[in-house]
Amino acid sequence: MPPAAAANSSSDIVVTAQRREERAQDVPISITAFSSDRLQQQGITQSQDLQGAVPSLTVGTSGQGSREAQSFTIRGQGATLQASPGVVVYLNEVPLPSPISVNQQGGPGNFVDLQSMQILNGPQGTLFGRNTTGGAVLLVPQKPTADFGGYVQAKIGAYDNREFEGAVNVPIVDDKVLLRVTGAYQDRDGFTHDVVWNKDRDDLHWYSGRVGLTLRPTETFENYTMAYGAYSSNNGTGQVNRGFNIEGLKAVVDASGNPFPFCQEGPTIPGAIVSCDVYRAAAAEADARGPRKTAYSTDTYQKTKTWGITNTSALDLNDSLTLRNIISYQRFQTRFAVDNDASIFQQDEYDARRFPASGQVTLPGDGTPVEYLPPAPTIPRDRFRTITEELQLQGKLLDDKLNFTVGGFLFDQRPTGSQGASVYGFCPAAFTGFCDSQRLTYAITTKSKALYGQATLDFGAFAPSLDGLKITGGYRYTWDTISGNAAYFTPLTATPGSFACSDGTVVTDATQCQFNARLKTGAPTWTAGIDYRVSPDLLLYGKISRGYKAGGINTNAVFENTRTFQPEKVTSYEGGFKSDFNLAGMGSLLNVSYYYLDYKNIQRAAPDVNGALLGAQILGAVARVQGVEVEASIRPFRGVEIGGNFSYTDAKYKSYEYTTNLPAADCSGGLVAPGGTVDLGCVPFTGVAPYTYSFHVSAEQPLANDLGTLAMFVSYSHTSSQHTAATALPGTEPGEKLEAFGTLSLSIDWRKVANSNLDLGLYATNLTNNLYRIGNPNLYNTYLYHSTIYGEPRMYGVRARYTF
């Protein structure tokens, strides 16, 4: 490292993007890596903290009403309701559990005690367990070492935040049996106050643990077992109401198509119909409360429990070949109640456990007491187990000039109990007793198997003058089978004992509403690339890759032809360079890449409505996505680094058409009849922030008289505006375009205080307390309201860490 270099430069981080340990600067793909120190400096403890810190990455709720349902989108490829993730998160080389109902992977505590975090941009199917179109996030845990030691850390801060984490490393038998135990806990008040229930939403209450055991019975065999568990229980997400679709409320019809307006332009008639001024008054009250207060009719919550065991074995067959096996068993369960419209009305509310008591709440601007309908019975939204098995053979031949990996992967995910939801979708404010609760149950099994291989050849094996010129080729074939059943129905209050099924039929047994579905697909994926180490400081590369994301079953289907959806496919073209160099004696880094994606059969969720139910369907589209990613840093003085990243993403649909089951508006400005082709090509591409960038300054200064080291890290991240409504015509969905925002973070640490093992620090995120939005349900034209989710306010605190 040059004399002016700083510790933990991104160029020095060891990554495993190609399933072997390499410097990040030696890997011919776009990759962002964080060391454990950098994660702490930047205050990265959850998915949302990566927003703006990684080129071409956006983090959002994908239109869902849960802050925990945050998912990654890279280069415009991410999560869709009920579909496989476009960006897979791996912990210890194993994909984390991914539920159907919410777009999250795993539970809390995943970012605790990591050796590194690596974000890989682009398709990764020829080397990693699950196929992806967008990329992968690799969480590499700290593994046991041969030395006894560990750390304890405590934080206190804003919103009565209390955090604790610690780890202990125990060499039970010198270099033969090594143990590491990690635990973490966080308890923090929420920052959105619910004035109806007098509770703070957006609170945090979770704990997690991890145990790692390494066995080395011989010099050629190593076995690493990791067990983890996490539990979270909170008061749910604080959504904020921003208005109602008054014209839509006046035009509601019942299951038979007869007018059933939710309000009228006139006075309230108790027990019959309310004045539309009630909804206007509710919106005005929400606006007056501001973005950090809400008023729910439902006492929301979310509980998540997950645990798993992974085992990795590595046997050196000889100096050139290693046989590896990775097996895992994981379980996941979540249940929650959500008040999506964020108002006192019983409208679009999932799995409500309880409502306010009789007379506790009155209609806004009216004073009429609200009599709520009883809660509907609830069961867990997701409850399943996942098993994976991966066998690999890794090798080096031709004096280590040829590196290869071949392997097979198995994935099996299936439910371990009842799963489903109860929804009060359309309940008029007058509560006439004819509001029906929609019910959904489902049981989906996903199986996947694949064979893959990838090899890299350095032409230096044939001529010394060609040393550093490499070609890479990889191929994979995946077979996916998704099967299961779902029942989407409404118990009819007016005729007890009867149920309206999703296909419009009325039955006397709810199980008659169940449909069965099965989807078998398979596809090849591949990669071909060339890279050349022009000099020790400059790497040039180019590659072409094919990515694939499995299709699935649409449990919310209303019409028979929307019960399954097909896989996504993407062809990625990428080229760039990575460089380390001295600029006027200053250690510098500059990485630049350009990519172009041909993206086909894009999975997009859209409303699916008949006279009885409002469900979902998954549409296919074709798009092109292109962009530029830049990472740069310079170290002008010893212990000082100035750096940042930038990305530009240009995404546009080439074709976005589907056959409609109902009359639907499209980009032509007209109404397309059932059976016709709807053109949505004018709809903006979602999940893409055209511009993201971040800047940081990192500085360390040793103090005199062995008093320790003073370290400071300042970063600013910016994300441009982005669209979130996948099917809404431009201008028809209020708030669907999230505004641009930036956040400033700061950490100051006194390391090795007075030459001890104690570190003290101050930290702050969103230092300027910027108000910004991270999600929008986009249900103004279906469930007739507008609500939104805001990002975290300023968080700050102090921390102490003792290493032993």
Automatic annotation (TrEMBL):
Pinpoint the TonB-dependent receptor-like beta-barrel domain residues: 290-767
Protein name from the UniProt record: Iron complex outermembrane receptor protein
Has UniProt tagged this entry with the keyword Ubl conjugation? no
| Gene3D superfamilies (alphabetical) | TonB-dependent receptor, beta-barrel domain (2.40.170.20)
Its organism's taxonomic lineage begins at:
Bacteria, Pseudomonadati, Pseudomonadota, Alphaproteobacteria, Sphingomonadales
Q: Give GO terms for biological process.
A: iron ion transport
* UniProt family annotation: Belongs to the TonB-dependent receptor family.
Domain TonB-dependent receptor plug, by residue range, is 24-136
Q: Give yes or no: UniProt keyword Ion transport.
A: yes
List the keywords (alphabetical): Cell outer membrane, Ion transport, Iron, Iron transport, Membrane, Receptor, TonB box, Transmembrane, Transmembrane beta strand, Transport
Q: How does it sit in the membrane?
A: Multi-pass membrane protein
Q: Name one Pfam family in it.
A: Plug
- Which Gene Ontology cellular component terms are annotated? cell outer membrane
- Chief place of localization: membrane
Q: Where is the protein found, in the record's own terms?
A: Cell outer membrane
Q: Which domain of life does this protein belong to?
A: Bacteria
